[in-house]
Amino acid sequence: MKEAARAHQVLQVDLGRQIDPFEAINRAGVTVAIVPLDNLSGAYIPAMAETDGQPGILVNAKHPRTRQRFTAAHELCHHLRDKDIAFDRETEVLPRSGVIRNDREAVAEAFAGWFLMPRQLVYRFMHDLEIPDSPSPTDVYRLSLDLGTSYLATAAHLYSLGLVSRVRWKELAKLAPKWIKHQLAVHGPGDSWGDVWHVSDTERGNRHITPRPGDEIVIELDELPSSGYLWTTPAGGGFELTEFSFEQENAGEETDVVVGGHGRRRAVLRATEPGEYQLQMEMRRPWLPATRAIRTFSIQLSVQRRLVGYQPLAVAV
Question: Which CATH number among 1.10.150.110, 1.10.10.10, 1.20.58.1560, 2.60.40.2020 corresponds to the domain 185-303?
């Protein structure tokens, strides 16, 4: 934990947003190559004559994005702590309740968790997402998306922070993320590695999400059609709209259904082109386009590029 905190300070890591381990590695003056690897999660190569005096990190392009990020942070620890060559067959071993007999690798695993999930950032996201003291599997999954870590790594770290008991951690670890995604999805992500982002107007702060192409984004907002004010379809780039619907409260209870009654407006999107976008919706009277919106809803959308290839080298901090 102390090593990670020191690295945050030395490498000028912004602790107010999702941690970018590749940006930190770049600041450390290390070249990163994200390439297909067989039987390796990653590797650290110290500065040697064979590398023209330049240290480097390899990350397996075949792994999911969260695993790649964890591996990158793991290898960063090797660079900062010992600068000895390392070929890592597995990372994220500790979150999967594995046993690491090598102290050097155990430190790198713990470092990766604390580097990507510093206490203050976890608390901030839990506050913004209104996650309760006893988080459900869905809560942990939603938190993991904002942190950019896997569901299992996030659940294990909540235990490390003392936010869940050991018994609860074990219960959370038994559930497969695929099952959780199914509970949140409307149409489902584009592939098995895809995620489902659920966003609502009950969350605090300015939401910033980081989907990759194919991920599903589900937005749910309060609406009262009888008032005449309706939500507009999402405007912005980086996504395609797959559903725009309204579901009235108590719609399944015939005696309680009121025409134009209160309900939830749902917009289902699929992330497309990588890039930075601002998604916005307005509540207004559609037949009076010149009228001022009485409410607005916006999120920052950073659609991620597939991590593969070489990352440019920056000047070392």
Answer: 2.60.40.2020
